[in-house]
Design the sequence.
């Protein structure tokens, strides 16, 4: 059954270049929401020339929604931990020898380490600019990157960093965060633009390599699905652990929507590359795995 708000949603999707496969998740969100809530969600991105306000106690977005400064700092700390940890993991991987395309792998992870170090520094400056210090990460985000750090096969590492992490965190959550907070604090957010909004040449090379691995059956679909399930279940759990904070900030429905999209996004990318998987079935399985206590 169609929601009466499909026209509004369709226009918004086209305006922001949202992939067609995202529509069912947005419609599901719309069925749980009224017109005001849907328009507010769209206004998170559609801020036009409006500016937000940053004070010592809160951030008021261009659409009028306010967040406690402690909440914003907590979110930034999670981003910082992930980016800083990916930099350190990449440094270690770049120093390891591999007989599989050694020069390109080394070059890729050296460049990724340097880029993530730069992004981590920008995030640290933003946290400190808000009058806060870098704090300990949530247990959920630690588990995600512990799982990544334990990978020892090079194709698995590429899939984990260049598809699963990128498509689950940077594209859904990072992009929204960037678009929402840029009008509030452009001097900070400008330096994070490439992290949240663009795919660099290294990412293109990595995706081509992954396409070769899949196309040449170097890794079976079963292997790749198992890898995706392990990491995405931890990512699901990490996002779910933030629901109490989302509830207090009155953005629980939006966070649930982004959680679902963050799990679906890398699955769709893998399917487009040739991995034989049923996205809906995997979504349900990952949700079950993610809700289990680790």
Sequence:
């Amino acid at each position: 059954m169609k929601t009466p708000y499909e026209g509004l949603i369709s226009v918004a999707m086209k305006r922001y270049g949202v992939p067609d496969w995202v529509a069912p998740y947005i419609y599901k969100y719309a069925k749980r929401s009224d017109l005001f809530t849907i328009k507010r969600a769209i206004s998170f991105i559609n801020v036009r020339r409006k500016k937000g306000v940053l004070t010592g106690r809160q951030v008021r977005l261009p659409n009028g929604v306010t967040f406690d400064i402690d909440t914003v700092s907590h979110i930034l700390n999670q981003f910082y931990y992930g980016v800083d940890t990916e930099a350190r993991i990449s440094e270690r991987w770049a120093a390891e020898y591999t007989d599989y395309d050694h020069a390109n792998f080394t070059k890729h992870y050296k460049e990724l380490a340097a880029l993530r170090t730069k992004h981590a520094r920008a995030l640290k400056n933003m946290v400190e600019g808000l009058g806060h210090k870098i704090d300990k990460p949530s247990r959920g985000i630690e588990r995600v990157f512990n799982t990544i750090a334990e990978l020892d096969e090079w194709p698995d590492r590429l899939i984990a960093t260049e598809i699963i992490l990128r498509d689950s965190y940077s594209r859904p959550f990072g992009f929204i965060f960037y678009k929402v907070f840029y009008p509030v604090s452009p001097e900070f957010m400008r330096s994070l633009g490439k992290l949240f909004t663009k795919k660099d040449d290294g990412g293109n090379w990595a995706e081509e390599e992954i396409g070769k691995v899949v196309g040449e059956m170097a890794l079976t679909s079963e292997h790749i699905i198992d890898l995706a399930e392990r990491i995405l279940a931890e990512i699901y759990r990490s996002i779910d652990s933030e629901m109490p904070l989302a509830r207090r900030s009155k953005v629980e429905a939006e966070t649930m929507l982004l959680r679902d999209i963050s799990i679906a996004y890398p699955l769709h990318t893998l399917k487009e590359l040739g991995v034989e998987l049923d996205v809906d079935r995997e979504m349900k399985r990952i949700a079950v795995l993610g809700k289990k206590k680790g």
